[in-house]
Amino acid sequence: MALLFLPILVAAAISNLVRADIGTASYYNPPYLPTKCDGDREEQFPPGNLFVAVSEGLWDNGAACGRRYRLRCLSGPKRPCKRRTIDVKVVDFCPFTPCPSTIMLSRDAFAAIAHKHGRKINIEYIQ
Fold it and tell me: Signal peptide location in the record (predicted)?
């Protein structure tokens, strides 16, 4: 009897481990300083310039500063996605009102996961 429940328990445990959100991403251009998180400090940017600015839904009154997200491109116009996942760091609040995407990627971060056929892609992300 216990052997019948084991596959169910394993499936439930795996489904609880993978809880990604779906959103949109665009890229924004320099200058990236100052940011809402660490002002004019160059040290805030991670290696490879894989950083993001987030929209109101993720900003959390500034608590998002320094958070890390793993994300990947899902779809977009003209099949822009590269088969790659990247880790990014939140350094800013979206510089546009209203914000055009859930997450605004640095140009380098966008180029790491998508070809620049368009400016907006669909993404999957997890903290």
Answer: 1-20
User: Would the pLDDT of 8 be above 60?
Assistant: no
- The single-letter code of the amino acid at 53 is A
Helices (H) and strands (E) in the chain, counts: 3, 6
Tokens of 11: 């499936």
**DSSP string across 55-81:** -HHHHGGGTTTT-EEEEEEEE-TT--B
Q: Which residue has the tokens 């903290």?
A: 127
Helix (H, G, I), strand (E, B) or coil at 90: strand
Give the pLDDT confidence of 85-127 residue by residue, as tens digits: 999 999 999 999 999 999 999 999 999 999 987 789 999 999 9
pTM of the model: 0.83
Peptide bond into 31 cis (omega under 30): yes
Residue whose tokens read 């979206």: 94
